[in-house]
C-alpha cells in the first residue's frame, strides 16, 4: 500500500501523477504507460472534485494505492463536507455546457467507483483493471 | 453602372499552448480567449499539439470560448494534441465531435 498526502488545492494535485508513476513501477513499460495516463486522469479528476466541492480548502487529501496482478485500487479521502453525489450535473452533449464533465470522464476510465462517508470523511474508491500488455499474443 | 469589388481577409488568431491545461492554467486560457472575443476576434484556433495533459477544467475553458465564438458567428477550432493522454479527454467526452479539430493550424486556418 502506497500513500500520498497533499494539500487541498489545485497546485498540490500536480504531485499525483509522479506518485502514481512510482505506484505503477512494478509493471512493464508498455502497461505502465497505457494504464498510467488513464489512472492519472481519473484520480486527478476525483481529487479536483474534492478540492472544488467539499469546502476543504484548509484540509489535506489522502490518497492510497494498492497494485495487484489484476487491478489497481486507489482510495481518496478528504475531511471536507459530505458530498451529495446526486448534485453532480449530467452533461448533455447536444447542449455543450461549460462544466460537469469530471465525473463523466472518471466513470469511463474505472472498472468501479464507490463513495462512502466514513468517520466524518469522504472516501472515494476507484478500481482499475490492469491489462497484461507484455504477454505475447497466443499462437494460432 | 459601377462595379465595385472588394477583397476582405478573414482575421484568424492562432493561440499556441504548451504544457498542462488543467485547473491551474485554465484561468489564463479563459482570460486570453475572452480578451480576443471581446475585441471582436471570434475566429480562433487553439493549437494543442504540444499539450501534455488536459483535464475537465481545461476542457471547460475551451468549451466556453467555443460557445462565445459561435454566438458571434465565428468558431474556436483546435489543433489535435499529439499526446494520446491529452487527446483522451476529448474522446471520452465526445467533444472531438463538437469541436472542429485538425492536425495543423495552417489547415484549420485555410479551411475557413
Explain the layout of strands and helices.
The complex is a heterodimer of chains A (140) and B (112).
Chain A: E1 2-7, H1 16-23, H2 29-53, E2 60-67, E3 71-78, H3 102-109, E4 112-118, E5 121-129
Antiparallel strand pairs in A: 1-2, 2-3, 3-5, 4-5
Helix pairs in contact in A: 1-2, 2-3
Chain B: E1 13-21, H1 26-38, E2 43-54, H2 56-71, E3 75-79, H3 84-92, E4 101-102, H4 105-110
Parallel strand pairs in B: 1-2, 2-3, 3-4
Helix pairs in contact in B: 1-2
Describe, in plain words, how this protein is organized in 3D.
The complex is a heterodimer of chains A (140) and B (112). Chain A is an alpha+beta fold. Chain A contains three helices and five strands; from the N terminus they run βααββαββ. The longest helix of chain A has 25 residues, at 29-53. The relative contact order of chain A is 0.20. Chain B is elongated and about 60 Å long. Helices cover 39% and strands 25% of the residues of chain B. The A-B interface holds A 10-11, 13-14, 17, 37-38, 40-41, 44-45, 48, 51, 91, 93, 96-99, 101-102, 104-105, 108-109 and B 20, 22-24, 53, 55-57, 59-60, 63-64, 66-67, 84-85, 88-89, 92-95, 98.
